[in-house]
Amino acid sequence: MIDPRRLRVLRALADHGTVTAAGRALHLTPSAVSQQLAALESEVGHALLRRHGRRVSLTAAGELLVGHANAVAAELERAGATLAAFAAGTTGRVEVGSFASAITQVVAPALAVLRSRAPDVALRVRDVEGHASVPLLLDGEIDLAITEGYRLHADDRRLTRFPLYTEPFDVVLPAAHRLAGKAEVDLADLADDDWVATLPGNPVRDVVELACSQAGFAPRIPHTSDDFRAIGALVRAGAGVALVPRNALRCDPAGDGPAGDGALRGVPVRGAAPLRRVVAAVRRGSAEHPLVALVRDALVEVCRPVAGRG
Predict the structure, then answer these.
(1) How far is 229 from 248, CA to CA, in rounded Å?
(2) pLDDT of residue 263
(3) Which positions fall inside the HTH lysR-type domain (predicted)?
(4) Other CB atoms within 10 A of residue 79 CB
(5) Confidence of residue 91 (pLDDT cuts 50, 70, 90)
(6) pLDDT reading at 306 higher than 70
(7) Separation CA 284–CA 220 (nearest Å)
(8) How far is the C-alpha of 163 from the C-alpha of 147, rounded, in Å?
(9) Which residues of 122-158 are buried (b: 16+ CB within 10 A; e: fewer)?
(10) What distances in angstroms separate CA 91 from CA 14, 116, 188, 290, 296, one per listed residue?
């Protein structure tokens, strides 16, 4: 194994031409330079220098080895530059956990912003339901969790959170539903309908059941899915009605459903609609880490128009 510190001595001898000058450049005595060179020649099994009085020149083996020494030195310089950039927060990786609609609405656009603004910051995205992302965050498996605000305990000092956007829940109806032409819908008017909802334990399910309870009934839920596209497909097929966050299916409250196909109607709830407050959370103490701050700022920036749609 070649000692890279001795390669530095060889480079200095090639650059300066004498043992004394090389030692002065390296802050070594001439004796130490000679010892390092002898050890290097022993390691490689070749003579590396020719002596011409006080001056030295490289042998053919020395020329070859200096070429490699220059390559090693360049890689070490690059390593130093990379570490300096890492320390400055301009390069590195951030792991983000988010539920699917927030990935579509804000995480993917934020990733695009980062690719143009900070191309050396790698954003790794994991699709995970909001209620499951916080344990991953606390376990150190992700660096930032996007979740529903009411899933975070206000007094949890392990976390720092910042708001992203708030969106209302809309009633989603098949195009042929008796209330599909209404500008607003009372949830109580849907007490006798079948419902399509997320699975128990999903925070959206909690919102739906609470909203229906406040309207005076318990929803009858024969169909369940945690995939909002699947919920939309079931509603479109006439399996029931649903209550979903507005951005989840991107339903236009005054017009067509997803992709503008006209098969669904997203209708605002009359009165105080349930709200989903979406936040980003990080482990306390990491909020001002340069990489985390870059991602946070990109998320907040792309959230402004999303929040406006709510």
Answers:
(1) 8
(2) 52
(3) 2-59
(4) 10
(5) confident
(6) no
(7) 41
(8) 10
(9) ebebeebbbbbbbebbeeeebbbbbbbbebbeeeeee
(10) 35, 13, 53, 9, 15
Secondary structure of 79-138 in HEC code, one letter for each residue: HHHHHHHHHHCCCEEEEEEECHHHHHHHHHHHHHHHHHHCCCEEEEEEECCHHHHHHHHH
CA distance linking residue 142 with residue 205, whole number of Å:
25
CB pairs under 8 A, 24+ apart, for 207-214? 207/169, 207/243, 207/274, 207/276, 208/169, 208/242, 208/243, 208/274, 210/274, 211/169, 211/187, 211/243, 211/269, 211/274, 212/187, 212/243, 214/187
Tens-place pLDDT, residues 221-251:
999 998 888 999 999 999 999 999 988 766 4
How far, in Å, CA of 210 to CA of 276, rounded? Answer: 13
**230-233 contacts at long range (C-beta below 8 A, 24 or more positions apart):** 231/172, 231/196, 231/197, 231/198, 232/172, 232/257, 232/258, 232/264
Query: How far is Cα 77 from Cα 29, in angstroms, rounded to an integer?
Result: 25
Alpha carbon 10 to its chain centroid, in Å, reads 45
* C-alpha to C-alpha distances, 118 to 75, 112, 113, 150, 277, nearest whole angstrom: 23, 10, 8, 32, 28
Amino acid type, 28: L
The pTM assigned to this predicted structure is 0.65
In degrees and rounded to multiples of 5, residue 280 shows phi and psi of -110, 140
Backbone angle region of 46, left / alpha / beta, with phi > 0 → left and psi within -120 to 50 → alpha: beta
pLDDT (average), residues 55-74: 92
Q: Is 65 left (phi over 0), alpha (psi -120 to 50) or beta?
A: alpha
Please count the residues of the chain.
310
Classify strands 264-268 and 159-174 as parallel, antiparallel or unpaired: antiparallel
Q: Answer whether 246's CB lies under 8 Å from 263's CB.
A: no
